[in-house]
Automatic annotation (TrEMBL):
EC category name: oxidoreductase
Keywords assigned: 2Fe-2S, 3Fe-4S, 4Fe-4S, Iron, Iron-sulfur, Metal-binding, Oxidoreductase, Tricarboxylic acid cycle
EC number(s) per entry: 1.3.5.1
InterPro entries named among the record's database cross-references: 2Fe-2S_ferredoxin-like_sf, 4Fe4S_Fe-S-bd, 4Fe4S_Fe_S_CS, Beta-grasp_dom_sf, Helical_ferredxn, SDH/FRD_Iron-Sulfur, Succ_DH/fum_Rdtase_Fe-S, Succ_DH/fum_Rdtase_N
Entry's Gene Ontology molecular function annotations: 2 iron, 2 sulfur cluster binding; 3 iron, 4 sulfur cluster binding; 4 iron, 4 sulfur cluster binding; electron transfer activity; metal ion binding; succinate dehydrogenase (quinone) activity
Pfam families documented for this protein: Fer2_3 (PF13085), Fer4_8 (PF13183)
Cofactors that this protein relies on: [3Fe-4S] cluster; [4Fe-4S] cluster; [2Fe-2S] cluster
Domain 4Fe-4S ferredoxin-type: 146-174
Protein name in UniProt: succinate dehydrogenase
SUPFAM superfamilies in the cross-refs: 2Fe-2S ferredoxin-like, alpha-helical ferredoxin
Family designation: Belongs to the succinate dehydrogenase/fumarate reductase iron-sulfur protein family.
Natural source organism: Anoxybacteroides tepidamans
GO biological process: respiratory electron transport chain; tricarboxylic acid cycle
Keyword Oxidoreductase set for record: yes
Length: 253
């Protein structure tokens, strides 16, 4: 008689933000076409570990289930990525699930990504417009520029590039690749360019461009294929020009 196919998972668990992490192994029934989230849902449905002991359901974040919201990031078999697009059939077992340690752990695989959202605030990653009356159509962007700006706009603040970057950690205040790339996006916008100097000033200081070690990990890990290192190189050029502008007190450089 053939044995029932199962999936083995080793999950790094943590009960509270300040408690010690520990590993718990699970063995769940296999179904075709499962992803990591459906495996976690199976554990939630029947929270019993591989030793047959009743345990607490594993906690994680998710929302869109189609690699758009960025909420479900975790480290899967050593690689930070989205759990909604991580197919069980394509993963080596036992499948190791860990939280992204660049961010404080809330519980189990759930992390607090505020660090990244605070950085987006710091670099003013928005276009300030007065929404109290109809401003009419905005200025048009040249098609070629619109195309690359669209690629940058796909960022879903998943935090994977920050997790992959060796220079983003608890000892550094480096804002990381995603917020830098958003500076390039908003500076490229005809209306957003009004605040270009302020955004550049924010990344020319501590925790900004100079903290990038050019490891290239970010661009390789981004699930959206965002050209992060190209953005960082372009910003380095913009920052140098801005430095001369500041030095000569002129807009003409
Ligand atoms: S740049 Fe890519 S990896 Fe980084 S937060 Fe945005 S989508 Fe995620
Ligand atoms: S649940 Fe939204 S990206 Fe995975």
């Amino acid at each position: 008689m053939s044995e029932k196919k199962t999936i083995r998972l080793i999950v790094t668990r943590q009960d509270r933000p300040d408690s010690a992490p520990y590993e718990e192994e699970f063995e769940i029934p296999y179904r075709p076409n499962m992803n990591v989230i459906s495996a976690l849902m199976e554990i939630r449905r029947n929270p019993v570990n591989a030793k047959g002991e009743k345990t607490t359901p594993v906690t994680w974040d998710m929302n869109c289930l189609e690699e758009v919201c960025g909420a479900c990031s975790m480290v899967i078999n050593g690689k930070p990525r989205q759990s909604c697009t991580a197919l069980i059939d394509k993963l080596e077992q036992p499948i190791r699930l860990e939280p992204m340690r660049t961010f404080p752990v809330v519980r189990d695989l759930q992390v607090d990504r505020s660090r990244m959202f605070d950085s987006l605030k710091k670099v003013k990653a928005w276009i300030p417009i007065d929404g109290t009356y109809d401003l009419g159509p905005g200025p048009r962007m040249p098609e070629r520029k619109r195309q690359w700006a669209y690629e940058l706009s796909k960022c879903m603040t998943c935090g994977v590039c920050l997790e992959a970057c060796p220079n983003v950690n608890s000892k550094s205040n480096f804002i990381g690749p995603a917020p830098l790339s958003q500076v390039r996006l908003f500076n490229a916008h005809p209306t957003g360019a009004m605040h270009k100097a302020e955004r550049l000033a924010a990344i020319m200081g501590d925790g900004g461009l100079a903290n990038c070690g050019n490891s290239q990990n970010c661009v390789q890990s981004c699930p959206k294929g965002i050209p992060l290192t190209t953005s960082i190189a372009a910003l380095n050029r913009e920052a140098t020009i801005q430095m001369f502008r500041n030095f000569f007190g002129s807009d003409e450089v």
